[in-house]
């Protein structure tokens, strides 16, 4: 027996190993099957290795039969989900304190949740104790060299930034916010929770202090 996931476009995206040969008579078996990694609609199909099957009374022979349909949703993993388009897997702010005029390293790890036709811009903002921006970088990922329209579903991308703190930045506690937007519309992708509800349009990935 063979079990396989088939995507909406007909592609087979994963199969469970074939079980032991079946014997005549009634048989009940249990199988643990890993869900596809990419969100979407899938059909779980079952068949016999090297044999044809009939999926209904008087149905023509086929290679396998649909067993169930399943909708795979993005897992609530990583740090933040941006509109079910991309997942922020991890983020690191490279220093705990800084002085005005210095740079703050920020390392981001993304995973594409689906193919993208648009080229999104990433923003990394240094927000001061007064709530104002005192440093920012807005760029395509990977120093502008890897536009998001070239990403493939499931691909992970390491994205590094050096954000300069303004020379006149006031002392105090700062937060580092990141997000995505389209330059054509200036609209940011919302951050969504596990139910898919928007909870903001930027995500705080770390904090640091600026001394007097």
Brief overview, please?
This protein has 212 residues and is mostly beta strands. 0% of the residues lie in helices and 47% in strands.
Q: What do you see in this structure?
A:
The protein has 212 residues and is mostly beta strands. Helix content is 0%, strand content 47%. It contains no helices and 17 strands. It has a six-stranded antiparallel β-sheet with strand order 13-10-8-7-15-16, with no helix packed on it. Strands 9-17-14-11-12 form a five-stranded mixed β-sheet, with no helix packed on it. Strands 2-1-3-6 form a four-stranded antiparallel β-sheet, with no helix packed on it. It starts with a strand and ends with a strand.
Key attributes of the depicted protein:
single chain, mainly beta, Immunoglobulin-like, six-stranded antiparallel β-sheet, five-stranded mixed β-sheet
Largest sheet, in brief, is: 6 strands, antiparallel
Q: pLDDT under 50 segments (min length 5)? A: none
User: Distance between the terminal alpha carbons, to the nearest Å?
Assistant: 70 Å
How many domains? The number is 2
Q: Estimate what percentage of residues fall within beta strands.
A: over 45%
CATH architect. name of the largest domain: Sandwich
Number of helices: 0
Order of helices and strands: EEEEEEEEEEEEEEEEE
Across the major sheet, the strand order is 13-10-8-7-15-16
Structural class: mainly beta
The percent of residues in helical segments reads under 10%
Average predicted confidence as pLDDT = 88
The overall strand count is 17
Q: What is the CATH topology classification name of the largest domain?
A: Immunoglobulin-like
Top CATH class of the largest domain: Mainly Beta
Give the overall shape.
elongated
- Cα-atom radius of gyration: 24 Å
């Amino acid at each position: 027996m063979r079990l396989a996931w088939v995507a909406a476009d007909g592609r087979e995206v994963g199969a469970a190993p074939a079980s032991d040969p079946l014997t005549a008579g009634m048989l009940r078996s249990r199988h643990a099957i890993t869900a596809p990694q990419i969100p979407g609609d899938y059909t779980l199909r079952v068949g016999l290795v090297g044999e044809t099957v009939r999926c209904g009374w008087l149905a023509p022979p086929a290679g396998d039969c649909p067993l169930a349909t399943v909708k795979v949703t993005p897992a609530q993993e990583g740090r933040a989900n941006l509109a079910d388009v991309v997942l922020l897997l991890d983020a690191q702010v490279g220093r705990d304190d800084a002085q005005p005029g210095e740079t703050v390293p920020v390392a981001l790890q993304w995973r594409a949740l689906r193919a993208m036709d648009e080229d999104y811009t990433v923003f990394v903002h240094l927000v001061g104790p007064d709530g104002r921006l005192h440093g920012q970088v807005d760029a395509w990922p990977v120093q502008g060299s890897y536009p998001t329209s070239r990403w493939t579903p499931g691909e992970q991308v390491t994205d590094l930034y050096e954000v300069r703190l303004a020379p006149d930045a006031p002392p105090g506690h700062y937060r580092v916010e990141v997000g995505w937007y389209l330059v054509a519309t200036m609209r940011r992708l919302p951050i969504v929770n596990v139910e898919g509800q928007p909870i903001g349009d930027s995500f705080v990935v770390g904090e640091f202090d600026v001394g007097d």
